[in-house]
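Exercise 7b. Backbone tokens:
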């Protein structure tokens, strides 16, 4: 397991869902590669970095992509397997540009990725061989959006090998600039990952850490309160929550402690009315108090905020993050 002291010292960070569609969208988005590249080219990296610096964020999470199959960084391995022409991976490596802008400011860059192929991209699902022989709803898929690929085993072994190769390329490119990964959708873990032989959680983690063995990795089991550790060598908890905010009493002990079964305590929630949308749903005092509560036990809080089309945090969220910064400073 990687050292998490820098993550503890960050205390809290900002999480952004910058996607071709809305978070967890269930409809194919009306966007093409040209549209996507124009958006990524117009992302104001320096402006966002200035905002994050202004509010004192210790780390920053950015989504690589999600259901749509459009990604904000090029990946030759993905393109070779999936075969979209033109590619749905952006020409600009937005993650690399963020690393270059944020690192001098002392802000660590971390990335969000999914455990499965993009749920709304039929060609990607089939060519990556992400067609489970069991109920696909267990990983958020809809069976009517793809055709089953013959020979796919229960563990989706070939898909996992393909997916590990995809993330390994990104990890090697970014190297020490990528300080961590947050992997979404690890829902059917007993079938796919909890095995002594590869592919499993360990081989997935090794691919994610290929370029930086010190990067932190968390695998999200979904909303779980109390927060749990999902994999024995997980560096920090995914900690996704929505409307229930875990406190000491939920753990049946006075102290939460700095870790959960050996993983750094981390909580992720959204400040708005959903992932990447809306204005603040809670008053400043509530958010300040909750972050202080988790920090008191050595834990870390990540706060999801909406952005403009050019990647800047919206004004209402900047006001709340500024209030948090002033109170935590």
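Sequence design result:
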């Amino acid at each position: 397991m990687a050292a998490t002291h820098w993550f503890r010292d960050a205390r809290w960070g900002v999480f952004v869902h910058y996607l071709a569609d809305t978070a967890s969208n269930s409809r194919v988005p009306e966007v093409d590669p040209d549209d996507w590249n124009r958006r990524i080219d117009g992302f104001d990296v320096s402006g966002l970095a200035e905002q994050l610096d202004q509010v004192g964020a210790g780390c920053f999470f950015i989504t690589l992509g999600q259901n749509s199959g459009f990604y904000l960084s090029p990946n030759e391995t993905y393109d070779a397997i999936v075969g979209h022409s033109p590619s749905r991976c952006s020409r600009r490596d937005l993650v690399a540009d963020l690393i270059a802008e944020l690192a001098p400011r002392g802000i660590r860059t971390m990335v969000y990725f999914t455990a499965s192929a993009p749920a709304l991209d039929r060609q990607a699902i089939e060519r990556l061989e992400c067609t489970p022989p069991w109920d696909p709803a267990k990983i958020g898929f809809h069976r009517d959006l793809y055709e089953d690929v013959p020979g796919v085993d229960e563990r989706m072994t070939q898909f996992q090998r393909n997916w590990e190769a995809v993330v390994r390329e990104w990890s090697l490119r970014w190297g020490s600039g990528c300080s961590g990964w947050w992997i979404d959708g690890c829902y059917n873990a007993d079938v796919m990952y909890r095995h002594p032989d590869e592919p499993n959680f360990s081989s997935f983690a090794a691919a994610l850490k290929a370029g930086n063995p010190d990067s932190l990795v968390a695998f999200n089991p979904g909303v779980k309160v109390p927060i749990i550790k999902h994999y024995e060598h997980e560096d920090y908890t995914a900690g996704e929550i929505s409307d229930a905010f875990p406190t000491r009493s939920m753990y049946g002990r006075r102290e939460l402690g700095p870790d959960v079964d050996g993983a750094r305590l981390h909580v992720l929630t959204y400040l708005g009315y959903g992932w990447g949308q809306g204005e603040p749903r809670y008053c400043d005092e509530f958010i300040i108090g909750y972050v202080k509560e988790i920090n008191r036990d050595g834990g870390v809080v990540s706060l999801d905020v909406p952005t403009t089309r050019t990647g800047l945090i919206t004004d209402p969220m900047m006001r709340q993050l500024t209030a948090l910064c002033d109170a935590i400073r």
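Instructor comment: The chain has a mean pLDDT of 94. Strands lie at 12-16, 59-63, 108-114, 178-184, 216-219, 259-260, 263-264, 266-270, 300-304.
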